[in-house]
């Protein structure tokens, strides 16, 4: 049973990853594509628009978060002090 749970956890982490909103948005895009195709309309265009919308929202959210918290500051790398130079 632990192997089955490990397998399911792997797929959850692989699909959802760091942001569950992206996975949910793409699932909604797939459902929208399915619904449009069931309606008898050519649905090839719905998924690229959904991906573009989800990606745009994710980048917008990341930029907004960066503006709120500030960029990550890293200390400068130590310089090699060689007296012979």
What general outline do the C-alpha atoms trace?
A: flat
Share of β-strand residues:
under 5%
Helix content: 55-70%
Biggest sheet details: none
The total count of helices amounts to 3
Number of DSSP strands? Answer: 0
Alpha-beta classification:
mainly alpha
Order of helices and strands: HHH
Assembly of the depicted chains: single chain
- Poorly predicted residue ranges: none
Radius of gyration: 22 Å
User: What is the straight-line distance between the termini?
Assistant: 64 Å
Q: Average the pLDDT over all residues and give the rounded result.
A: 87
Commentary on this structure:
- The chain is mainly α.
- The chain has a domain at 18-69.
- Helices cover 68% and strands 0% of the residues.
- It is flat, with a radius of gyration of 22 Å.
- The mean pLDDT is 87.
Describe the structure in brief.
By secondary structure, the protein is mostly helical. The protein is built from 3 helices and no strands. Helices cover 68% and strands 0% of the residues.
List keywords for this structure.
single chain, 85 residues, mainly alpha, 3 helices, 0% strand
Task: Walk me through the topology.
Blueprint (H helix, E strand, L loop, with lengths): L1 H15 L3 H19 L7 H24 L16
Helix pairs in contact: 2-3
């Amino acid at each position: 049973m632990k192997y089955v749970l490990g397998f399911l956890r792997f797929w959850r982490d692989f699909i959802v990853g760091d942001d569950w909103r992206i996975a949910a948005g793409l699932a909604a895009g797939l459902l929208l594509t399915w619904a449009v195709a069931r309606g008898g309309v050519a649905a090839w265009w719905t998924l690229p628009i959904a991906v573009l919308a989800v990606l745009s929202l994710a980048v917008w959210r990341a930029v907004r978060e960066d503006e709120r918290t500030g960029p990550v500051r890293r200390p400068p790398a130590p310089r090699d002090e060689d007296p012979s130079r």
